[in-house]
């Protein structure tokens, strides 16, 4: 699988059905980006479509809402450069404020079961931060996420892990950053030594 942005058609990587809603995980190319489509009774939300905006319009002309987990170009659609971009009109989409990777980062929790986690939490990894203060904010955000139901599925913004999706409960057992949520010092140490840690532990 190469990292080209799809030209003809977005492929649906995974699809879930929950209480009348459909959640589609879309391979959107770039830096192994995932975007998401959420459909419910004719309401269609496009989430994290920074890439492929023309194609999105062609393939999903019925989109009524654009959301972004944060304001990085690979996630932010042109249509959501306003204040409402991080709140869904659907009441079963809960916005969880998770600053750290960027100061405005959020996650979207759909039906209390699917966590669209942007660049806050990846499978086996987490998003980068720029300094100690933002790392501390991310540490607090991840502690907040760790309180969610362990059965929650983590649907992240990039395909960076050893698998495409996982449960939060399983990630709490294997993600080396989530294993360090008891101590900011340990957590921050891993952030600062991540490159060496990856080599030592054979992580790609
Ligand atoms: Zn980002
Ligand atoms: Zn990203």
Chart the SSEs and their pairings.
Blueprint: E1 11-18, E2 21-29, E3 33-40, E4 43-47, H1 53-59, E5 65-67, E6 93-97, E7 106-110, E8 114-118, H2 132-146, E9 153-156, E10 166-167, H3 168-174, H4 184-192, H5 194-200
Parallel strand pairs: 4-5, 8-9
Antiparallel strand pairs: 1-2, 2-3, 3-4, 6-7, 7-8, 9-10
Helix pairs in contact: 2-4
The structure holds zinc ion (2 copies).
One zinc ion binds at residues 70, 72, 101, 119, 127.
Overview of the structural elements:
By secondary structure, the protein is α+β, with helices and mostly antiparallel strands. The chain has a single domain, classed as 4-Layer Sandwich (Metallo-beta-lactamase, Chain A), CATH 3.60.15.10. The chain has five helices and ten strands; from the N terminus they run ββββαββββαββααα. Strands 1-2-3-4-5 form a five-stranded mixed beta sheet, with no helix packed on it. Strands 6-7-8-9-10 form a five-stranded mixed beta sheet. It is globular, with a radius of gyration of 16 Å.
